[in-house]
Specification:
This protein is mostly helical. It is 58% helix and 5% strand. It contains five helices and two strands; from the N terminus they run αααββαα. Strands 1-2 form a two-stranded antiparallel ribbon. Strand 1 and strand 2 form a beta hairpin. The longest helix is centred in the C-terminal third of the chain and has 20 residues. It is elongated. The mean pLDDT is 90.
Length: 116
Amino acid sequence: MNLSVDPSSGVPPFEQVRDGIRAQVDDGTLAPGFRLPPVRTLATSLGLAANTVARSYKELEALGVVETRGRSGTFVAGSGVERSLREAASSYAAAVRTLGVTDGVALDAVRRALGQ
């Protein structure tokens, strides 16, 4: 895993760590099942507080990119981004059904939201 943090960047360190790991998962550098370094180990190697790295891991877990297996560690989840996308789509579909909106109207709303 190749990760660095630019202290002079306007981007907060936890975002740099989160985005760096996510980019490596997305491009296949970090494969599903890869064990990420423990929070303290990565924090020390990057010169960050452990809470900073812990926040990055927590956000990545919420996105479905990684999964924590208790004392065993944190691992890259299988296709986390796709799983998060499916969950978001399912949540949206449920909300649309509750509103009584047709599929066509719901899809039009998504296209507008995406700027198409």
